[in-house]
Amino acid sequence: MQARDNFNITHSLFLLLGGVALLFIFAPLAGMFISVNAPHLFEAATDKVVGNSILRTLLISAAATIVSALFAIPLAYILARKKFPFKGVVEAVVDLPIVIPHSAAGIAILGLISRDSALGAAASAVGLNLVGSPFAIGLAMSFVSIPFLINSARDGFAAVPVRLEQAAETLGASRFQTFTKISLPLAGRSVVSGLLLMFARGMSEFGAIVIVAYHPMTTPVLIFDRFNSFGLAYARPVAVIFVAVTLILFIGLRIYQKRKW
Amino acid sequence: MVRLNNILYKADEFTLGPVSLELEKGGYFAIFGPSGSGKSMLLELIAGLRTPAGGDIIIDNRDFTFVPARKRPVGMLFQDYALFPNMSVFENIAFPLRISGENEEDIKREVGVLSEQFYIQSLLKREIAGLSGGEKQRVALARALAHQPSVLLLDEPLSALDEELRDDAVKTLGILKKDGQTVIHVTHNRNEVSDLATRCFRMSAGKLTPID
Question: Tens of pLDDT along B122-145?
Answer without folding.
Answer: 999 999 999 988 899 889 989 999
